User: Fold this.
Amino acid sequence: MNFRVLLIDDDTRLFELLSGYLAPHGVQLLHAADGPHGLAVLENHSVDAVLLDVMMPGMDGLEVCRRIRVRWPVPILMLTARGDELDRVLGLELGADDYVSKPFSPRELLARLRAVLRRSRPDATAEQLVAGELTVDVPGRLVRSDQRTVELTGVEFDLLVALMRRAGRVVPRDSLLSEAGRGDVTVGERTVDVHISHLRAKLGDDPRNPKLIKTVRGVGYVLAREGRNSDEG
Assistant:
């Protein structure tokens, strides 16, 4: 299958290197040298994923990520400086689906890109998860709570699916990202807590007295089998 991917990065040599490597693997690479031009490309072209550099002059990659997420559901793979944990955390919280640290090999980037595309284009096997009034259409990556559609980032969605597939069982905090298929995201347990906090807010789960995603102190999280109605009545 062929894909069209947009690289937003001011490094022209990187574009030349990646475009030459990715083309034989079925990836057509478009290029924008800065954030505003990247957003303009998205206005006029349909792409399957975005490779987004964090460090760019003018509008940085984090701001570009935020603006993309407001308008487009396209998967975003952040390109970050090696060891810069803050950029990775902020990127994931803003809605990036994954990251790769510079310098990287084209082979590593292709593997990460394929993983992101697989998650955004799951197979047609229907899987619907239900917990109380919360329903998740896994292939369609759609979440509904109390009859309303809930917009989640890629990481939030994967964490929710991992918890729902193990409803009623405690998932340790230090293994939750791996359970969600995000074992390559190594930004610390605090990041899991932040995503769970965001999930609760978006699902209307009171963080002071959560009924849906409960904290097992010192261990991890558990999703109530019957959703937020499990302790009512």
User: Anything to note?
Assistant: The two ends are 51 Å apart (CA to CA). Confidence is low (pLDDT under 50) at residues 229-233.
